Amino acid sequence: MTAKRSGARSKRPQRISQWSQPAQEPRSEPPLSRERIVATAAELLDAHGVDGLTMRRLADRLGSGVMSLYWHVDNKEDVFDLALDAVLEYRGSPQTVQSQDWRGEVVHMLEDWRASMLRHPWSASLLPRRALGPNILSRLELLSKTLSRAGVADADLNVAIWSLWNYVMGATITRAGFDLSDDDRAAAQKRLEHLSERYPTIERCRLLLDDDWDGAFRKGLGFLLDGLSPK
Amino acid sequence: MTAKRSGARSKRPQRISQWSQPAQEPRSEPPLSRERIVATAAELLDAHGVDGLTMRRLADRLGSGVMSLYWHVDNKEDVFDLALDAVLEYRGSPQTVQSQDWRGEVVHMLEDWRASMLRHPWSASLLPRRALGPNILSRLELLSKTLSRAGVADADLNVAIWSLWNYVMGATITRAGFDLSDDDRAAAQKRLEHLSERYPTIERCRLLLDDDWDGAFRKGLGFLLDGLSPK
DNA sequence: CGATTGACTCGTACGACGTACGATGCAAAA
DNA sequence: TTTTGCATCGTACGTCGTACGAGTCAATCG
């Protein structure tokens, strides 16, 4: 299970530590910088979705020429990687150095993770196909440490971590995919008429209509942690 | 929780039942048809990935003009929807009408689902952003029925189904994202040197190096089912 | 039988896109 | 003053999805 891509950042004297702290403030105004590009890219992604980010639009918004971007950034993929990691920062549960409530700590981090991704719905679907940035690795490290301290056997640790990862990613991608906005409600309803005959159980429990996503996430996470808890 | 899109298939006298059985055999040769288009699209997707499917390439491979495709298909999104559902068919565990081994049945269906998606790695990342086709709905129906018969309370049924969905989707998308092929191994290894200091626990349990994806999937699924089992 | 229809094919063209390739400007160093 | 490097950007190329309308050909109809 290795991460991928992100080889050799080219030209530009390389930032001090390859991937350093990504964000600062937007500055006064004009001077182009990697930070400003990334921040603006994230805004554009929030506003117009994955397909709404184009190098031309990005340059427009920054008041620069399109090709100027390529001095600070390798290519569009690079912009995605940087914007993605910028959005996944975690300031842990403050200075509760190590509470004995490992379960609460795990739930807190995972719900925060999910919330961060839902605040930027493009991020969830991007994360699994990109290299793991430092911020997401920090979350994984925290998760490992907490579970380990909680008594999960080393042999089960990887499975536990990946199970939680899978659950969170699946839940968030699904949630972000079914976005509220559109008026597909009509089409969906029309489809449901056929459903009652062909998919009676789905219909009975109203699987596709329930919209308590947050509750379902929390409850399912509880079940999963029940299964993962050291016996 | 509603599905989305797939409104009004335009022109073309509409297929008998809107979404009928998608596949037949590739036919002798030339006559363009929705079935042939979808099958060829799936081949192209398997061979060249999501970005490798272009309407021009598709037409080339079919020996037709590009714009001819648009008689049978609304647009490129339509092609994705159709190809996606075509790949997700499930022929259940044969005529074990209803074994009492509900757990085995669930595991079998979910592993088959995952395997189907991994056979076509583009499918996993597409599924959450598209409308739910008939084949995936059938799987959900089967899942509902089995869990319900197993004694899962109606109040927990939705949560159980979505938890399993989330787990399978997360696992499969992640797996499909980290594709084996490339030579990023070098880059990944180089990165791991920094990791030992900054992410000791990850390093210790070799989280990113373990490549027993199948085993991890099965084991984690077991834990999740433990948590979901009616007490 | 000729005219009309409708199912189907496809060439051309348009406006996007990512980005390669120099040509520029401009500060600090020599 | 000249040189050097960072930083900016205009132009141009090849690719994409697809709108538009002109073509083909069999079945239908008067």
TrEMBL record, chains A, B:
Renumbered residue ranges of the record's region Disordered: 1-33
Keyword Repressor belongs to the record: yes
Compositional bias per record (Basic residues), positions renumbered to this chain: 1-14
GO molecular function list: DNA-binding transcription factor activity; transcription cis-regulatory region binding
Presence of keyword Protease: no
Function: TetR is the repressor of the tetracycline resistance element; its N-terminal region forms a helix-turn-helix structure and binds DNA. Binding of tetracycline to TetR reduces the repressor affinity for the tetracycline resistance gene (tetA) promoter operator sites.
Protein's recorded name: TetR family transcriptional regulator
Originating species: Rhizobium mongolense USDA 1844
Lineage: Bacteria, Pseudomonadati, Pseudomonadota, Alphaproteobacteria, Hyphomicrobiales
